[in-house]
Amino acid sequence: MLDFQHWPETSAALDRWSKISPWPVEVGATPFEVIETMGSMSLRFYSPSLDAVPRDPVFIVPSFINRPFILDLMPDKSLIGSFLERGHPVYLFDWGVPHRHESKLRFDEIVSLYLDLALKKVSAHSGAERVHLVGHCLGGTVATVMASLNQDCFHSLTLLTTPVEFSGDQKLGNWVRNPNFDVDAFYEAYGNAPWPMLQSLFVSLKPMQMQHKYRHLMKKLGDKKFVRNFLAMELWSNDNIDMRGESFRFVIRDLYKANKLAKGELCIGQKKIELHRLCLPILVVSASQDHIVPDEALLKASDVPHSRQFLHFVAEGGHVAAILSAKAKSGLWPRIGEWIVASEQV
Amino acid sequence: MEKSSKSATQAVAQVLQTISGKLSENLDSRSLEQRLQQIETVVEQSFDKVTSHPAFLGTVSVMLNANSYRKIWTRKTLEAIWRDLEIPVRNDQAQLMTQVEELLVRTKRIELELEKARKGQTDKNHPSQGQKNDSHSEPVYVAKTANVKRPKAGLSSLEVQ
Prior knowledge:
The complex is a heterodimer of chains A (346) and B (161).
Chain A lengths: L6 H13 L13 E6 L2 E6 L11 E4 L10 E3 L2 E2 H7 L4 E5 L12 H20 L4 E6 L1 H12 L4 E7 L10 H6 L6 H8 L4 H11 L3 H11 L4 H14 L7 H13 L2 H4 L3 E2 L2 E2 L9 E6 L22 E6 L5 H4 L1 H18 L3
Parallel strand pairs in A: 3-6, 3-7, 7-8, 8-11, 11-12
Antiparallel strand pairs in A: 1-2, 2-6, 4-5, 9-10
Helix pairs in contact in A: 6-10
Chain B lengths: L1 H25 L2 H23 L2 H31 L5 H36 L1 H5 L30
């Protein structure tokens, strides 16, 4: 809330910010090279720090409903940067902005062809036999499927705020599971799911968050660092992409309605995805105040009894802040980095 | 003239300062913050009640479905006309584009597999040559794990399931 006693300071801060044009927000600034393109999708390569001890590569699968620069938000706030500093070459699968015709690309085709090609390319480019797989949000769900299909290619699996069990009594799940909603008709009519619809769906989960957020901004308008972070986050949260039509249909029909992944009924090509066969060391990171992926939606140790190591970190904050906050930078990221290195020995 | 305009500005500034002062006296910012939070909670709870009600969800679904059916019907009708006129329709083009892209991806995969197999064969037949890779095929980054002292993971304070 505006503090009237400090109005002159707030006014001066407003004045200062209004004079800066364009506003100094640098997102996704870490240099990368696109080493493979597959339609609108591509594979990025981030070169590691030369000072660090060289380590095995990290392959990141970001969420397919947002831009991937959330993992490389600002120069001083970059999860990708933290991997690079530790000496891991980073490969990121960029889902791109889907073309109209890509609405017909089935989820199983994306995993068995596109992601498989990306994985092969990572292997050929890095020369490493095994890589560390990291998935964020729905990208983590994809990463879990990939890990089940090619266990020999990975050292470890890290899931950042990732839903795997979709049958829980969550608000989002209850909305999209509504039996009256004809997802097939929606897909046929729209093709790719339009991002404004998806964004309003997520905003409606916490309708007052927007107002709360701006109230907080007004309080901290004098804090340059805060404002920069705020602008970067706003840029990311409002710069969404359409979801490929078939992928949207898959998420609603096969995950939210039928919960096929958790039940072990999901098939990619001829192969059945059975989580209980996963042997890899697995790290699950959840957020303490996550209203999109609550605790009951996470992968649990009982789902993967054969996993060589199963750890669960709980990070403070919401769905995104838990992974990106200053606390995450000083606490969570080093722990993930240490665990990833240690997992090679497990 | 200038003096009078200055004094007017000063007067306005004084009035504004008085209003601002009175406002800050009368408004206890902490209680205002609490009141706003209360309002937010009430609005959010009401919104939750409405949006989780089957009647609301049913109505929204019917509206979405009706719009989808309308779009499908319009598209199919137009497509039938284009097809009669032997004009290619977007849906078929999209299908074709997807198949072409898939074919490209499959080709790239086969190329990579072939390259890997060829490299493996070279290493097997000429182990000395296999080590002398040309710069093009040489892996960019290979972790030299054998000589690396790994830091111990500090997992003691973590929540472990």
